[in-house]
Hints:
Strand content: 15-25%
CATH architecture of the largest domain: 3-Layer(aba) Sandwich
CATH class of the largest domain: Alpha Beta
Order of helices and strands: EEEHHHEHEHEEHEEEHHHEEHEEEH
Helix content: 25-40%
Amino acid sequence: xSNIYNCTPYKIDIPDITGSEGIYLFxxxxxxxxxxxxxxxxxxxxxxxxxxxxxxxxQISLIMHAGFSYSGTIVEESAESILKITGLExxxxxxxCSGSEAIELARQISKKVTGKKISMxxxxxxxxxxxxxxxxxxxxxxxxxxxxxxxxxKRNCRIxxxxxxxxxxxxSDFIFEPGSSSGFVRFPPESLxxxxxxxxxTNGGKIILxxxxxxxxxxxxxxxxxxxxxKADMIAIGKGVGNGYPVSVTVLNKETAxxxxxxxxxxxxxxxxxxxxxxIVKEVINIIDSNDLVAEAERKGELFLQQLMDLQKxxxxxxxxxxxxxxxxDICDKKTGDYIYKKxxxxxxxxxxxxxxxxxxxxxxxxxxxxDLFIKAFNNILDSI
Length: 385
C-alpha cells in the first residue's frame, strides 16, 4: 500500500506491518523483522507483551480516562513506583502523554519557582518537538562541549576553566540529556557535568534531567543520570515507560513540588494523570524489576558493545559507542550507510539510519542469540562491499 493518507514527511520503509511479538514485527506477507530500534526507544519490554496486555485489558474494563481534577488509587500506586526508582521518594509525579510535554512542564515549573527565564542545555541535546525547545534564539544559553572531548582534564574537569566563564547567573534551569545527544549517542564527561550542576545550583537554578530516551533501564541503570551521580530537581520520563503507549511522567523532588504548590503553579491537560497510562507505567516498571532487566541490560550491553566494536576490523565502520543497550555505529559515508541499511532491512533487521550513523537500541528483552544473528548479517553485508 502506498503512503496516500498518512501525513508524514518520512519515507515508510515497511508500509504493511500487521503484527508483532517480542522484538519482532511482521508484515502482511509474514516476513519477520527484528526491531533493533524498539519503535524509536519505546518498546522497553518488547512488542505485544502478554503480561502488560493483561493489565491494559483489566484497566480498560474499569476506567481508562478521568480528568485533572479527579483521580484514583492506580495513579498514586504508579507514582510511588516511579518515585522509588528515581530516588525521589518524597516527591510528586504528573502523568502526561509525551516526553516533549514532560520536558515542557518541567521548564514551566522552573521558571515559575525561580522567577528566571533562561534555560541552559548542551549544544547537541534534543529536548522534544515543541517550538519552545527547538527555537533556541531567545531565553537559552547553549553550552558547546566539543572542546571538552579532547581536554586533558576531562576526567578531572576544573571549575575555573574558561568554558564556564559565560554561563549566566540568572539561569532558570539546566536541562541535561545524559547520553543520547540527539540520537548520536555521546556521553559528556562526568566531571564536566558535575561542575555545570554545581554552578547552576549555586546560582539558584533547577536541574532537569531529560530521561525520555536514556531512562527505564536503557543504559544499564534505571536512568542515564545514575552514571553521573547527579541529584535531580525534576526528571522527564517517556518512551520506554509506556512500552509504546503514549504516556510520560514529570517527576519533581520534594523541594520543587513544595515550591510549585506555594507559587500556585497549575498545569491543565485533558489526559493528565489518566488511569490507563498510570497502570501501564506501573506494570512496565514491575516487569523490568521482577525480571532484573536493568542488570541484564548492563551485562548484555557489554557483550554487544564488544561485538559491535569488532566490526571495526572493516574500515567501513569508523567508530562505535555505547552504554547499556544504547549504541551508535559510525559508517564511513552516507551513501554506504544507506546501502547497508537497505540490505539489513531486506534481511529482516531494523536499525535507525542516520545516514553515516546507525543507532541501535533493542528492547531490554533481546537475547544474546538474537543479537548474534544481527551481527552475523551485518558482518556478511560488510564483507560483500
